[in-house]
Amino acid sequence: MLRSMYSGVSGMKNFQTKLDVIGNNISNVNTVGYKKSTINFQDLLSQNMSSSGANPMQVGLGSSTASINVNHNAGSLMSTGVGTDLSIMGDGFFVVQDPKATAPAGQYLTRAGNFTVTAAGDLVTAQGYNVLDSGQNKINVSNFESFSINRSGEVVGKLANGNEQKISIGISTPENPAGLRKIGGSLYEMTNIASANGLNVQTATTANTEIGSGMLEMSNVDLTEEFTEMIIAQRGFQANSKTITTSDEILQEVMNLKR
Hints:
Layout: H1 3-27, E1 37-43, E2 46-50, E3 57-60, E4 63-70, E5 77-79, E6 86-89, E7 93-97, E8 107-110, E9 116-117, E10 123-124, E11 130-131, E12 146-149, E13 154-158, E14 164-168, E15 171-172, E16 181-184, E17 187-189, E18 201-202, E19 210-213, E20 215-217, H2 223-256
Antiparallel strand pairs: 1-4, 2-3, 5-20, 6-19, 7-8, 7-11, 7-15, 8-17, 9-10, 12-13, 13-14, 15-18, 16-17
Helix pairs in contact: 1-2
C-alpha cells in the first residue's frame, strides 16, 4: 500500500482533534474563568530509504498530536456589582474544597469567582464547593453583621459589637499552571507537573496579586482567532482527504494494468 494514504489518514485524525479543541473553546466563549486550549502537531518516525548519499534519504510516515496545552492568559473583566463575585487580577487560583471529601482530598483550583453565600454562611462556588482561606479552612460569614471583600483578598466582617474581623481568601500559585488537569466545572486538579510542592495556599498579598470584588473574569477565548484556526483545520482536513483520494486513484490504475 502507498505510504501517502496512511500519512493522509494520520493528518485527517489530527485535524479532527484540532476541530474538537476549537469547538470546545467556542462553546466556552462565555464561561466564567475558562482558559482556552491549543493543539500542536509533530511528525512521525521517518523511514530511511537509503544511506548511500551525502544526506539521509527519508520519507515521513505522517503526523501525530504533540501536545494540547491550556493558555492561562487572563481574560477580560466584567463588572457585576455583586459583592461575592470575585476576580483574580494577576496570577493564582482560588482554592475550593468538596464538602463531601475530607481535606486534603477534594481540594481544587479555579479562576471562576462567581461565589455565593449559603444559608449557613459558607462562601461557596456554583457547585457548592467551599471557598477556602489561607489556612485551608472554609470561609464562613454567619457571625458578621455585614462584610465586604477588599483588593487584598480579605473578607472584612463587622461584628455586632462594632469590631472588625478579617479572613484572608486562599490563593494558590503553581509553578506551572499549564500542568494542571481540568476536571470540569471550571475546576483544576493539582498534579506533580504543575507543582512539585503540591497545593501551596497563601494570601493574595503573599502571592503578589489582587482580588477584584463585584467583577468576574470572563473566558480568554478570542472568536476571531478560533474561527481562523477553524478555517486552517478545515482546509488541512480537506487536503489530507485529497491525498487519500489521489492514492486511491493510483491504486486503481495499478489494478487496471491487468485488464
